[in-house]
Amino acid sequence: MFSSAWNFVKRHKRKFIFAGAVVGGVYFLGKYAQKKIRELQEKEATEYIDQARRQFHFESNQRTCNMTVLSMLPPLREAIISQLNSESLTALLKTKPGNKLEIWEDLKIISFTRTVVAVYSTCMLVVLLRVQLNIIGGYLYLDNSVGKNGMTPLAPPDVQQQYLSSIQHLLGDGLTELMTVVKKAVQNSLGGVSLKQSMSLLELEQQLSWIRAEVEAGSERPLSWYMLADDENALADQACGLTENDVMTIRLLNETRDMLDSPDFTTVLNACLNRGFSRLLDNLAEFFRPPPGDSTLSSAPDSLSAVCLPLAKIIPIINGQINTICSETPSHFVQDLLLNDQVKEFAANVYETFSMPQELQK
Questions:
Q1: How many whole angstroms separate alpha carbon 121 and alpha carbon 126?
Q2: CA pair distance 248, 226, nearest whole angstrom
Q3: Which of 42, 51, 66, 194 is 20 to 30 Å from the Cα of 290, by its Cα?
Q4: What is this structure's pTM?
Q5: Phi and psi, residue 133, nearest 5°
Q6: Can you list the pairs that 153-159 forms with residues at least 24 positions away whose Cβ atoms lie under 8 Å?
Q7: Strand partners, 198
Q8: For the chain, what percent of residues have pLDDT higher than 90?
Q9: What is the pLDDT of residues 299-330, one digit of tens each?
């Protein structure tokens, strides 16, 4: 029996070897496939965790951006009011001076200038801080990631403080220059308009459009200049030296300048400005509503354009808008800017750019 079995094996030896090889190959192939599937699953799980961690960090960073904007509005408001002090003029008018008309003319220019400047500077503050804090946020994510242990931080605390202090340009020299440009545009637009002349809301909107056109198209400098000094020496001065931290700060400032000069940034800033001036007009519209009981004006197809106010009555309304525009208490004006979809998308793109490991190789 055993000899016949052995003869059978010898006769079919090649078949048994081939079958064994096939079975062994399938076994090892299965093991290899299981290993690869396990590696793929582990990689997908790691990527998912990293993505979730990055998303959580990004959302937390956006909340920080919003709180920072709100905290910066009071000093911005004070900086504008201190340089465009209409309150002193209104107090002077109460003393019934002999040059009353001259003071009213000054009040007209200053009131419109500071409101327009408030819209511009608030929009600039929102988008500039979105850029700066998402650049910092991206680098902090890399600094805190698992693979960064033992390497030099990209954004140590001292660098963050130096870098973020560059916002003082917008509150200082940039703001002063913006006031000069806006005041000139206001003078050209409204300088010859009589205080007695009546205006509808639509005519007031046209005046604001002319002012914007001159500020944005007539200036020799781009709007980004008011947010961050573009001179290399100024950047070096802001970095305060040549230490390793200062070199990092200059790098961050240069990266910020590149972002501010990008077409995407211009698009987002313009969207904020359009929304900001639209919200300003919405606020002003409350004062152009027909008086209660006036059924003739209330039933008109365009009742807001039918109501006209003398410029002398519009000036106090315009003058008080800064308290709504630069309010640290979330107003519709500020919320419209912070919740703008284009701002959110742009912020996500900035964060994504600077939170990717590839940035370490640049």
A1: 9
A2: 23
A3: 194
A4: 0.82
A5: -75, -25
A6: 154/248, 154/360, 155/248, 155/252, 156/245, 156/248, 158/245, 159/245, 159/248, 159/249, 159/252
A7: 310
A8: 51
A9: 555 556 678 999 999 999 999 999 999 988 87
